[in-house]
Design brief:
The protein has 1 helix and 16 strands. The protein has about 250 residues and is mainly beta. Strands 1-4-5-6-7-8-9-10-11-12-13-16 form a 12-stranded antiparallel β-barrel. A two-stranded antiparallel sheet has the order 2-3. It is globular, with a radius of gyration of 18 Å. The model is unreliable at about 1-15 and about 15-25 (pLDDT under 50).
Length: about 250
């Protein structure tokens, strides 16, 4: 059993997932959009949230032409239930429900700044102390296919005690191939750091591809790699930080 589970760790988005940041075409003052996806596994920042099991996810977003946006994300999870079982008690906490909002604006040609807030909510997680619910503020900048993002928690981070002020930084590139514009190469490198809990820090990298099937459908896969210390991320023999191939299909509407 992982020792960090005593502190209720949850860590670990690539391409499509819970990270805030709306991507949709502005065709009017107000734009509503959504995305439904099926993943072979829900991993977040390199760490499995579903104990290597599939996940069904939904994003709903609103954006105004001023740059303001707000949205929500829902996914099934297993890490809280597995943590409870590993520690001898029962939990029905099998849902993650996030709410995010912010403001995007252009500062130069092809350069966009994104500033916002993200709240991670875990309904039915009342048995866990400290609470896994987490608040983060973030700032990002994108130029063409490249994007840099920094996030910092304003609360304890995913239940880790005394971890307010933890940080996450990532650099991602999503590059459509000129010869095959429907095929996008995705690459990411990031680092998660836990305030006052440095033994949990790790780096994650991901490389993969997404193919646009048309009519809002996309399929893709990527390989994720972390250097997280296995002893802190293993529950009942399952290493949540294990290097794995993840596949997905999504529908945007």
């Amino acid at each position: 059993m992982s020792r960090i589970i005593k502190s209720m760790l949850r860590a670990g988005v690539f391409g499509v997932s819970a990270s805030a940041g709306l991507v949709c075409a502005q065709v009017s003052d107000n734009t509503f959009s959504g995305k439904a996806a099926l993943f072979s596994e829900y991993e977040y920042r390199g760490i499995s949230q579903t104990s290597e099991k599939p996940a069904v996810q939904l994003n709903l977003d609103y954006a105004h032409k001023s740059g303001f946006y707000v949205g929500t994300f829902v996914s099934n999870i297993n890490w809280l239930k597995d943590t409870a079982n590993a520690n001898g008690f029962t939990s029905n906490a099998n849902i993650e429900w996030d709410i995010y909002g912010g403001f995007k604006f252009d500062v130069a040609k092809d350069v966009t700044i994104d500033i916002g807030y993200l709240h991670y909510e875990f309904p039915s997680a009342g048995a866990f102390i400290p609470k896994p619910n987490t608040d983060e503020v973030y700032v990002g900048a994108s130029y063409g296919p490249a994007a840099l993002k920094y996030a910092q928690s304003t609360s304890n981070t995913f239940g880790v005690e005394n971890s307010k002020g933890s940080s996450y930084i990532e650099f991602a590139v999503n590059y459509p191939l000129p010869a095959m514009p429907k095929l996008t190469i995705n690459a990411l490198v990031a680092q998660q750091k836990y305030k006052n809990n440095g033994f949990l820090d790790y780096t994650v990298s991901k490389i993969g591809a997404t193919y646009d099937l048309g009519a809002g459908l996309n399929v893709g896969a990527y390989f994720k790699n972390t250097d997280a210390k296995k002893v802190w991320y293993t529950v009942d023999g399952k290493d949540w930080s294990k290097n794995r191939l993840v596949g997905f299909v999504s529908y945007s509407f």
